[in-house]
Amino acid sequence: MKKTALLLLSVLLFCAATTIAQTWAPAGGHIRTPWADQVDPKAPLPEYPRPLLQRDDWMNLNGLWDYAVLPLDATFEKAEGQILVPFCIESSLSGVGRTVGPDNNLWYQRRFSVPKSWKGRRVLLHFGAVDWRADIWVNGVKAGSHTGGYTSFSMDITEALQAGENTLTVRVWDGTDSGFQPRGKQVSKPGGIWYTSVTGIWQTVWLEPVAQQHIAGLRTTPDLTASCFRIQAEGVEHGTLEYRLKADGRTVATARALAGTEAEIHVPDARCWSPDDPYLYDLEATLLVDGKPVDRVRSYCALREVGTATGPDGIVRMTLNGKPIFMYGPLDQGWWPDGLYTAPTDEALAFDVQKTKDWGFNLIRKHVKVEPARWYYHCDRLGILVWQDMPSGDWTSPWQMTQLYDGVERSRSAASEANWRKEWQEVMDAFYSQPCIVVWVPFNEGWGQFKTVEIAGWTKQHDPTRLVNAASGGNHFLAAGDILDLHHYPQPEMYLFDAKRVTVLGEYGGIGMPVEGHLWTPDRNWGYIKFTSPTEVTDEYVKYARQLKDMVARGFSAAIYTQTTDVEIEVNGLMTYDRRVDKVDIPRIREINQAVIRSLR
């Protein structure tokens, strides 16, 4: 009897799994990465999405949701089909592959049941990121709203929950390039360096049970001079925080602080983090209320310090842990042919970071996009420095890249400026504790650039622990931020120099090579210059790198090569858009890249 029941159960489970698989398949005819076939529609991206604040008890809500695209004045009554969350509706991996546009809303709905073991605790609903405006209901009760496409947000849905099955409904509006919102490279009509729009949920959605008093975040600041970490628990109104620092699994230091008070945890035999030695300390935080533990989270941290210093040659250089460092790496767009903004798997997300290390770089410039928290974790653990751009939006200002800008900066509307500041502050706050991020980049090439000197000062004031690159590629203003950033294609060139700030080459290269069978659009592709073989691409790359190496002694302190991968019709990547073909000789690239980095040492 038992064998019969088990056999029947196995058949039912197999049928259920087969039904799910049959309701989802990648959409469209574009190229896909090797990881597309590894996407499990029952559990896409199953990893805990927030490495800096981990709890053991949680529920992943990724998977197949009902969806509908409806006019702005319509309400959700009937689903059009199913969409695979967290892939945006325009992507192949969503299973839909269609645009929404500013005249429609995208509706999502799914059902869930809360585990009985969560009884008596508060239940938080977390969204990794939703582009752009999201409204959320639980069982028909409005639970919250959020604007901004690049940072996570949460809400306490406990009071809206009911016994048994619950219904979660999400409405999303996304104007893409029709308004002022930050949207990076997204446009309604892709072409050239501008790519397909991304609408809706594009990062993990999950539930988490917590106590009434719980830790909402940990703000960790390393202090090399004092050999300590300064730690502030966020969201806690009363109680005592206990912190435990571990090195290689062994507790090396502890500290206690009252809620609302910054703790200091001193590190014996301190070991600094760097690209050559990306050493991470494990961190545990426990909240005690009336002497009893009510919340415990796991995190990590790293001792590292970023700054500038004038060398004996009078040139201002960037420093890491008090030593001059040449930062060198690719411009990384963070796009995927199958998931657009979202990597198919966590392995894929880590692949680009590891590839950057394999090429011999120590830096990534994350270009007008913000990644999921796990991407920064991979940079932290693998040892890659990050320059983090603010996604651009609104209008494009006249671009003056070869001298100090003497024009009048264009003005944003009050609503546009307020929204930009809100989203930029959210980005800085969300990733403040990531060791890998060393430079904030508010503006790129005049794209939505405004009040440059003021914004640079505000950014530095908000986070004095990092350098500020106010305007990558211009428009340039004297004394705006820590860095003068030049762009020049295709070869490197130093046409400006700042004796009081760091001078860098924020973009160069763009060596293109279309690879048949690995093109987004076979009959249409673009690059700054084009070659036909990996040998030619490698030779040209090495030629430019040698030119760059000669410019290090003259004043360059960092350089960014365009770019990591091909993106849509752009074919100037070091590898193809589907990540299947390297377009360069990796040993030769690694050798010259390491020579450029070592030239400053």
Describe this structure in words.
- The radius of gyration is 25 Å and the shape is globular.
- It is built from seven helices and 36 strands.
- Helix 2 runs parallel beside helix 3 and helix 6 runs parallel beside helix 7.
- The chain has a domain of 85 residues: Immunoglobulins (Immunoglobulin-like, Sandwich), CATH 2.60.40.
- Helices cover 17% and strands 31% of the residues.
- The strands form ten sheets. Strands 30-28-27-26-25-36-33-32 form an eight-stranded parallel beta sheet, covered by helices on one side. Strands 3-2-4-10-7-8 form a six-stranded antiparallel beta sheet, with no helix packed on it. The protein has a four-stranded antiparallel beta sheet with strand order 1-14-5-9, with no helix packed on it.
- By secondary structure, the protein is an alpha/beta fold.
User: Roughly how many Å apart are the termini?
Assistant: 74 Å
The overall strand count is 36
Physical arrangement of strands within the biggest beta sheet: 30-28-27-26-25-36-33-32
**Which CATH architecture of the domain at 217-301 would you pick?**
Sandwich
Can you give keywords for this protein?
single chain, 601 residues, Immunoglobulin-like, 6-stranded antiparallel sheet
In short:
The protein has 601 residues and is α/β, with parallel strands linked by helices.
Architecture blueprint of SSEs:
Elements: H1 2-23, E1 59-60, E2 63-71, E3 81-85, E4 104-113, E5 122-127, E6 130-131, E7 133-138, E8 141-147, E9 153-156, E10 165-173, E11 186-187, E12 195-196, E13 200-201, E14 205-210, E15 217-223, E16 228-234, E17 240-247, E18 250-258, E19 263-266, E20 281-289, E21 292-301, E22 306-310, E23 316-320, E24 323-324, E25 327-332, H2 346-358, E26 363-366, H3 373-382, E27 385-389, H4 414-430, E28 437-441, E29 443-444, H5 452-462, E30 467-468, E31 471-472, E32 483-487, E33 502-509, E34 511-512, E35 529-530, H6 534-552, E36 556-562, H7 586-598
Parallel strand pairs: 11-12, 25-26, 25-36, 26-27, 27-28, 28-30, 29-31, 32-33, 33-36, 34-35
Antiparallel strand pairs: 1-14, 2-3, 2-4, 4-10, 5-9, 5-14, 6-13, 7-8, 7-10, 15-16, 16-19, 17-18, 17-20, 20-21, 22-23, 23-24
